[in-house]
Write a structure and sequence with these properties.
It is a single chain. About 6% of the residues have low confidence. The chain has an eight-stranded mixed beta sheet with strand order 3-4-2-5-1-6-7-8, with helices on both faces. The chain contains eleven helices and eight strands. Strand 7, helix 7 and strand 8 form a beta-alpha-beta unit. The protein is an alpha/beta fold. It has a single domain, classed as P-loop containing nucleotide triphosphate hydrolases (Rossmann fold, 3-Layer(aba) Sandwich), CATH 3.40.50.
Length: 305
């Protein structure tokens, strides 16, 4: 099925049929090393509100345990903006072998740290295997010190974007009711399954007018996924279209800090509780450790520009 056909399918109205949810099962792992449970917020399309959601969830999860926010949008990272930080160092220097990950950590608030990505560094949008291994190794060194690790993923289906998602314990696919967002989310879901066939991601509908629109949006997505992939994500919730998101960006703060009484913030609090329960049901594999195991062996390091 090509993307024109996918858009056609997503445009069709289909009756809502609630499929039984697929539970995450703990993985058997002989190594009983305590590592951070990892959550990747992913989206096939930019502009769906991924950074708003990531910054809020990281802030909320930090209230129950030390949390690390990883900006995986390597070429145009902006996670630091919603934490009102201007990092002196970033994962660019880790990828270049000039600093270790601990040296580029930024403290954002109590129990919440950030690994910032580069902004306007073109080659970071397509990392070499060695550069990705250096970043993965840096994360592996740190992940034992945190309870949660939240990945603010890059949009699209690039190999490194899919690698971060496939290495995470829980993947949250974010979409909006727009057909273009649904189509691109489907593309991401398809590629993720090709990389990690045992993954059953969660689905979050953002900017919905009400629960009915969110349910209808999710069912349109799932009906297409069932038909063509014989798999589907599980809807975990929805977020309202709320001006609080704009205010959050203007104030350079997570929306749950800038506008805690907004409907968006209240929905995010409920979502964080549900996600923490999902994370508690998984056996943390270690994002950095899993990346190191799956990234191809490097041939040679790219010469500095």
């Amino acid at each position: 099925m090509n993307w024109d056909q996918a858009r056609k399918w997503f445009s069709l109205r289909r009756p809502q049929q609630e499929a039984p949810p697929r539970a995450f099962r703990p993985r058997g792992d002989a190594l009983h090393i305590v590592r951070a449970s990892s959550l990747c917020i992913a989206s096939g399309k930019g502009g769906t509100g991924k950074s708003i959601v990531s910054s809020a969830l990281a802030t909320l999860l930090a209230r129950s345990g030390r949390t690390l926010l990883v900006d995986a949008d390597m070429g145009v990272g902006n996670a630091h903006i919603l934490q009102n930080r201007l990092p002196e160092h970033s994962l660019v220097e880790v990828a270049e072998g000039r600093r270790c990950a601990r040296d580029v950590l930024v403290s954002c608030r109590p129990q919440l740290d950030l690994l910032a990505a580069g902004s306007g560094v073109s080659h970071m949008a397509e990392l070499t295997p060695l550069e990705l291994q250096l970043i993965a190794g840096g994360i592996e060194e740190l992940e034992g010190e945190y309870r949660h690790l939240v990945v603010d993923s890059a949009a699209g289906i690039s190999p490194q974007t899919v690698s971060f998602a496939a290495a995470s314990d829980v993947v949250l696919i974010l979409t909006t009711p727009d057909i273009t967002a649904l189509t691109d989310a489907y593309a991401f879901f398809k590629v993720l399954l090709q990389r990690r066939g045992d993954c059953t991601p969660l689905m979050l509908v953002n900017r919905a007018t009400d629960a009915a629109e969110a349910q209808a949006t999710a069912e349109r997505f799932r009906s297409v996924a069932r038909r063509f992939l014989q798999r589907e994500p599980r809807l975990i919730g929805w977020l309202p279209d709320d001006r609080a998101a704009v205010q959050s960006i203007a104030r350079r703060e997570p929306v749950v800090v800038a506008c805690p009484e907004s409907e968006l913030s209240k929905s995010l609090v409920r979502l964080s509780v549900a996600l923490e329960q999902e994370l508690a049901r998984t056996h943390p594999r270690g994002l950095g450790r899993t990346l190191l195991r799956t990234v191809p062996a490097p041939a040679s390091k790219r010469a500095p520009a």
